[in-house]
Amino acid sequence: MPSIDYSSAADVTKRLEERLVESLTGETSVSRRTVLGGLGVAGSAAVGLGSSRAAASSDHDDEGEHGNFGAVGEYRDLDFDPHEFLTAFNTGESGQDNVPQQVYEEDGQTVREFEFTAVDTTITIAPGIEFSAWAYNGQVPGPTIRAVEGDLIRVKFTNLGRHAHTIHPHLKNLNPRMDGIPQNGPGVLDTGESFTYEWLAQPAGTHFYHCHSLPLKEHIHRGLYGTIIVDPDPERVRENPREYVNYPGPITDDFREQLVEEAKSRNHEYAENDAVNEMVMVMNSFDTNFDGGNEVYAANTRAFGYGVGDTDGNGNWTAGETKRPIQIDKNERQRVYLSNATEFDLINSFHTHSQFFDYYDHGTTLTPTNKTVDTIMQCQAQRGIIEIDYSDHEPGLYMFHAHQSEFAELGWMSFFEVV
Ligand SMILES: [Cu+2]
User: Fold this and answer.
1) Which residues, including other chains, have CB under 8 Å from residue 249's CB and lie 6 or more apart?
2) The model's pTM
3) Measured in angstroms, how far is the CA atom of residue 376 from the centroid of ligand 1?
4) What is the maximum span of the chain, computed from C-alpha positions, in angstroms?
5) Predicted confidence (pLDDT) per residue in 300-340, tens digit
6) How far is the CA of 15 from the centre of ligand 1 (A)?
7) Measuring CA to CA, how many Å separate 343 from each of 30, 140, 237?
8) What is the chain's percent helix, strand, coil content, to nearest 5?
9) Is the pLDDT at 42 greater than 60, yes or no?
10) 222 CA distance to ligand 1 middle (Å)
11) How many whole angstroms separate alpha carbon 60 and alpha carbon 322?
């Protein structure tokens, strides 16, 4: 493969990033200082979990210190890697080290059990820019849970944060006690309290979970959200194909088999799923000065996190580089589980350059709800599955971003590197 020069892409990414960081730390934001809560000190030593700054800067009305910003460059907080997060599926059988989990049978049903905490912490959202987050298991977005349709998802939740929290799942939930809202069941959990949520994994699709304490927008915006993927059960699809299509016509035997094959490709327990390159992207945003508007946008928390940093142009990114495109094999089918956790802005969007894709709204159908589109919108908490085929594209960088231009310039702009 001929070497590809990415230097201009790297330069533009760097300039955008510098402009973003300057807008957050420069003179223009001085007037916002009365409510500075999220800005940290750029260029300081690593600040991650357990940082003393986490507690110091998390009050809304703090007269926080102004960012003594330094060089814009590499992320220093390596506790969260957006590239690892893309494919960090917690299935009970395997997942992330910071998510204790197990899978077992109980009364003939598969139980996928997870231990969740809520903690106050500091995350890095752009080089040198910190945000005082409230986070499930210390990370934003929260861990991705993955189960198969019909399984029981059991989440042992302990609130170790300073505010009262819950976990509310966007699932078809038959027991109101398990809805994770202040009005039902255990209500909100105060500091130190625990509750075990039990949710049936249904319907198949891409779902969302978030804290439902009041004020709602703050509890979500601070970082308490994540994705639940419910894989379709191919045998159930074979028996009830009608439930998985947005199509009123006849279901022929061929069509039924096609749906079953599609369900296998979505189910992590089937070999067919290995042929698909799957990723989770949560569109999120950060109001760094707590004025009710966002200053930073991203997919998976880091502004320009999948942008272009230092490279030799042959796909060899500088060691330790966390800012780099998402490298994909052009011969693999690409599937993105996408959800929108953006607060304060009513919609977000996903747009691909030089490429069209199929979209499955909420991921609850096995046939696309939008075919051959290059932009989709999601309102708050909406989610869906994007499927992309780059097999006829030349190697190189292909941009994707929110098509709200403002969001793109403030961080929600990234690249696939097709190889
Ligand atoms: Cu909360």
Assistant:
1) none
2) 0.88
3) 29
4) 67
5) 999 998 988 877 766 677 655 667 899 999 999 999 999 99
6) 35
7) 23, 14, 35
8) 20, 35, 45
9) no
10) 8
11) 30
Query: What SS3 state is found at 288?
Result: coil
Token output for 400: 């994707």
State yes or no: pLDDT of 40 exceeds 80. no
Q: Do 205 and 230 meet the contact criterion of CB atoms below 8 Å apart?
A: yes
Residues 55-92 have pLDDT tens digits of 333 333 333 333 323 334 556 555 788 999 999 999 99
Task: Find the 179 Cα to ligand 1 centroid distance in Å.
Answer: 14
Residue type, 358: D
User: How many Å lie between the centroid of ligand 1 and the Cα of residue 165?
Assistant: 4
What distance in angstroms lies between residue 127's CA and the mean position of ligand 1's atoms? 26
Cα(39) to ligand 1 centroid in Å equals: 21
SS3 assignment, position 394? coil
Query: Which is nearest to 49 in space by CA: 160, 132, 138?
Result: 138
Q: pLDDT band for position 293 (50/70/90)?
A: very high
How do residues 86-120 score in pLDDT, each as one tens digit?
999 999 999 999 999 999 999 999 999 999 999 99
Instruction: Give the H or E element holding residue 255.
Output: helix 253-266
Contact 362, 368 (CB under 8 A): no
